[in-house]
């Protein structure tokens, strides 16, 4: 597994144990367990890119669950999901600003020679590694569509 992200998660787990912060400890352990599950299932060492993708996916799942709980009037569960999102986001790189994201999109469009919506896959492919964990891919997709339209 990637040294930096896994080490940061492991250190966070140790400090949460020392501080007796059960809520934070649970979230960090859940993330480490997800990494371990993938390593065992796929018989691989998770690299930095994959670890960011895993954390990004976990954040997205928590956000979706939070929205569903809010819609169902279960604010207690929605708050728990929102808390988990804030803890997981600590281990992701800083999010890209709209301007930075648009600049990356414009660069990817010119580099890939994309001219129409049929070329959207090329642009997404070029961007995915650069924005993983730093931007919502749904938002990225909308921005690309707007740029290619």
Structure, briefly:
With 149 residues, the protein is mostly helical. Helices cover 77% and strands 0% of the residues.
Secondary-structure blueprint:
Blueprint: H1 3-18, H2 22-42, H3 48-71, H4 75-89, H5 98-112, H6 120-131, H7 137-148
Helix pairs in contact: 1-2, 3-4, 5-6, 5-7, 6-7
What does the model show?
The structure is a single chain. The protein has 7 helices and no strands. Helix content is about 75%, strand content about 0%. By secondary structure, it is mostly helical.
Question: Which key terms come to mind for this protein?
Answer:
149 residues; mainly alpha; Hypothetical Protein Yqey, Chain: A, domain1; Arc Repressor Mutant, subunit A; 2 domains; globular
Q: How big is the Rg?
A: 18 Å
What about the largest sheet? Answer: none
CATH topology of the largest domain: Hypothetical Protein Yqey, Chain: A, domain1
Pattern of helices and strands: HHHHHHH
CATH architecture of the largest domain: Orthogonal Bundle
């Amino acid at each position: 597994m990637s040294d930096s992200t896994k080490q940061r998660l492991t250190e966070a787990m140790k400090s949460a144990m020392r501080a007796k912060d059960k809520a934070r400890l649970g979230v960090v352990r859940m993330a480490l367990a997800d990494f371990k599950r993938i390593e065992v299932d796929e018989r691989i060492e998770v690299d930095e890119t994959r670890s960011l993708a895993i954390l990004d996916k976990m954040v997205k799942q928590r956000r979706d669950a939070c929205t569903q709980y809010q819609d169902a009037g279960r604010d207690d569960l929605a708050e728990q999901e929102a808390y988990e999102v804030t803890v997981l986001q600590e281990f992701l790189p800083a999010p890209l600003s709209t301007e930075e994201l648009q600049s990356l999109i414009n660069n990817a469009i010119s580099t890939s020679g994309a001219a129409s919506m049929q070329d959207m896959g090329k642009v997404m492919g070029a961007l995915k590694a650069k924005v993983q964990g730093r931007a919502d891919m749904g938002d990225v997709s909308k921005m690309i569509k707007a740029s290619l339209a």
